[in-house]
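Annex B. Sample input.
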Amino acid sequence: MARSYTTPFFETPWHQHEEYELLIEAVGSGSAFVGDHIGEYSAGDVFLLGKNLPHWFRKKEPDMTCSAIVVQFREDIFGENFLMLPEMQLIRNTLRQAAQGIVLKGELREIVGNTLRKIESLSGFTQLAALLDCLHQISISDQISYLTQSTIVNFSKQDQDRIHKVFEYTMQNFQKKILLEDVASLTHQSVSAFSHYFKKSTKKNYIQFLTEIRISHACKLLVTTEKSITEICYESGFHNWSNFSQHFNKIVQQSPMKYRKEYTQVAGKKKLSEG
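Annex B, continued. Sample output.
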């Protein structure tokens, strides 16, 4: 099934489903939650998600219009034994690796993205052939990154709603001080019960999750604004430079200054090549 989802239909909560999902973020930007991965997405980004891999693409601003072209499919869409053919081994491996969440890069991102922009207007064999071509292109390329290593857990609808409520509250309040008691109350649990529940569900404790959201926001500000690193530290919810610097280095594996410098250099080279 290939379909465009545009605001207000784009706004789906944190969820999972049995279908594989290949999608391009056509319009808008925001935060991407895939398994235990927290990052940013922007228009043109392409993802391949495995079956039952929890995900949520949250738009940057409440009044922003976002749109995605989404292809959902099951393994048996090609026939009962089609994927077992020797010629399908690479695609079969790619679908298995999709359990980790795959994001496309470089030329592959453009090739598959262009096909996805057309796929909704196709039907029957041509649509199926376009999907196969996308999967083939991904299976033979090294221009991919994996988003998560966490084991997939099947969540009940109640658990999906609970976790989404925690995620949404955190995204709305991460720039301020957040008390664990307030977050736990959203799920009607004690702090101890909530902490155990959250880690079991997301494979990380809540403080780690909150810190990663703050660092992701800091990364975005470093490359999209000219604000000082000290300003960015406080705007991302940290209360002192030392704490911010320590967490940034641990998560990003480099200092905020080096991160900004490297991004600026890459962006500059890209601009020159396009010019």
